[in-house]
């Protein structure tokens, strides 16, 4: 059977980690962090620090695993090595059917949203970007575009990941540095830090909804910080993976956390907290005038597309990673790799379809009310689910890897488990009833996966029995 080739080096791997994570999340969720903390700047920064610390600890722990296990899909490989094939299958099934496509679908919409902002201006966002047919059409176009790039020219996809990673730092670094300096000079930054509870009191007086506090704000950062684990999906395509992937995970996590925190501070230096809460943190760009704001928004589009490209890398390979193990949907069909492009085209096509379905759910549930009170936030809850999934892997790692020193064997995994617990608790606190409806969908999808798993297992036993009888 054709095998995936080693085609990505260390720099591409670092760009994959950074590029998948840094994209829309810091722009998309910064406003939610402000709202949940009721405009308290210190609480908001602390939320970003906590979310970043959890990501760094988890990435460091999985970096240690990356030095020991390698096959075709990092986190699934780790689950198989530490918890067995059955658990690994369910991890892979969740990633392929829910996690990857849900994130990719949301990113397609976010990319389209910022495209509308750049073309029509900030004032048109509420009507055109969120609910208009223009946004839906652009989002669908972006999904298909990234699909074709990844399936027809996977090496080009790697180059795009590198170039867009460099490009996306332009607005982030610009806002972080210039916004902080301007905010200190004109007093805006100091004023926003001194707001304290006055905004919360004003919201109470006017009867507007209050945020749930810093704990819920940490949950908001989950979307912004998530995606680093997706880089492990291409470990079979990274040169010297056992060396380069761990380095990429650790360095990438540090870069991401520092960038987000500095950007958030910079934004607070460019506008009053009340305005940023009402209009979104990208409203801070208007400080520089329409022309500069538009340029920054175009940089954000490239940033989002870089993340979308990285997510599509994982989505196109998700079903293949199961089929390569003889599991999931029709293994013979989805394990097939095209000799000319070295890509699993059948897996990629199904990945695109799943992304489209999850994008439709997100847009319909969030903006059109298709599911009424039964809708849940597919930009956060599938991400939160990955944290409890990590726990058995981490526990087994502590039990089995006896040759490691105590820090790598116990300290990092225990801190990772604590971080996972914080994220789950924060989700329960923030989403409340939404957790229930998501859990129902999760159970149904996983039940379908279980039925397929035991079907293949039963057939394998039957084939084995027939072979033995013939002998």
Structure description:
- The protein is an all-alpha fold and 471 residues long.
- It has a single domain, classed as Amino acid/polyamine transporter I (Up-down Bundle).
- It contains 19 helices and no strands.
- It has helices at 10-21, 25-36, 41-66, 74-83, 85-120, 125-131, 133-152, 154-186, 188-193, 198-206, 214-225, 241-268, 273-279, 290-323, 331-334, 345-368, 381-400, 406-431, 433-470.
- The radius of gyration is 22 Å and the shape is globular.
- The two termini are 27 Å apart.
- 52% of the residues are buried.
SS element count, helices: 19
In what range is the share of β-strand residues?
under 5%
- How many β-strand stretches? 0
**Quaternary form:** single chain
Biggest β-sheet strands, sense, barrel: none
Number of domains: 1
Question: Which stretches are poorly predicted, pLDDT < 50 over at least 5 residues?
Answer: none
* Main structural class: mainly alpha
Let me know the CATH homologous superfamily. Amino acid/polyamine transporter I
Distance between the termini: 27 Å
Radius of gyration, taken over Cα atoms and rounded to an integer in Å: 22 Å
- The CATH topology corresponds to Amino acid/polyamine transporter I
Element pattern in H and E: HHHHHHHHHHHHHHHHHHH
């Amino acid at each position: 059977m054709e095998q995936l080739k080693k085609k990505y080096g260390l720099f591409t791997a670092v760009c994959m980690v950074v590029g998948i994570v840094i994209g829309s999340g810091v722009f998309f969720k910064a406003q939610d962090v402000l709202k949940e903390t009721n405009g308290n700047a210190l609480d908001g920064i602390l939320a970003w620090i906590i979310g970043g610390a959890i990501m760094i600890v988890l990435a460091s722990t999985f970096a240690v695993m990356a030095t020991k296990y390698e096959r075709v899909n990092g986190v699934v490989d780790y689950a198989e090595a530490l918890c067995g094939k059955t658990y690994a299958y369910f991890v892979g099934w969740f990633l392929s059917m829910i996690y990857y496509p849900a994130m990719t679908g949301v990113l397609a919409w976010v990319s389209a949203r910022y495209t509308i902002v750049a073309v029509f201006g900030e004032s048109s966002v509420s009507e055109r970007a969120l609910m208009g047919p223009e946004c839906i059409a652009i989002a669908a176009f972006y999904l298909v575009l990234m699909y074709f790039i990844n399936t027809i020219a996977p090496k080009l996809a790697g180059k795009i990941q590198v170039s867009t990673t460099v490009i996306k730092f332009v607005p982030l670094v610009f806002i972080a540095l210039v916004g902080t300096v301007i905010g200190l000079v004109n007093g805006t930054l100091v004023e926003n830090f001194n707001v304290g509870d006055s905004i919360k009191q004003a919201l109470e007086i006017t009867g507007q909804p209050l945020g749930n506090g810093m704990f819920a704000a940490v949950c908001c950062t989950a979307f912004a910080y998530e995606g680093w684990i997706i880089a492990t999906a291409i470990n079979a395509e990274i040169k010297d993976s056992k060396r380069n992937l761990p380095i990429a995970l650790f360095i990438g996590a540090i870069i991401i956390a520092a960038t987000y925190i500095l950007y958030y501070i910079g934004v607070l230096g460019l506008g009053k907290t009340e305005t940023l809460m009402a209009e979104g943190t990208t409203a801070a760009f208007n400080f520089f005038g329409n022309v500069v704001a538009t340029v920054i928004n175009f940089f954000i589009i490239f940033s989002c597309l870089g993340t979308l490209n990285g997510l599509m890398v994982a989505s196109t390979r998700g079903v293949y990673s199961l089929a390569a193990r003889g599991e999931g949907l029709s293994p013979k069909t989805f394990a097939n790799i095209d000799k000319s492009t070295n890509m699993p085209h059948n897996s990629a096509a199904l990945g695109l379809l799943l992304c489209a379905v999850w994008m439709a759910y997100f847009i319909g549930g969030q903006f059109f009310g298709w599911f009424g009170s039964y809708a849940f936030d597919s930009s956060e809850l599938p991400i939160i689910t990955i944290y409890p999934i990590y726990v058995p892997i981490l526990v087994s790692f502590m039990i089995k890897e006896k040759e490691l020193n105590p820090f790598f064997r116990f300290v990092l995994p225990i801190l990772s488990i604590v971080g996972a617990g914080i994220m789950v608790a924060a989700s329960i606190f923030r989403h409340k009833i939404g957790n229930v409806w998501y859990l129902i969908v999760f159970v149904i999808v996983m039940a379908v996966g279980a039925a397929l798993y035991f079907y293949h297992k039963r057939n394998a036993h039957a084939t084995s029995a027939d072979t033995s009888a013939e002998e």
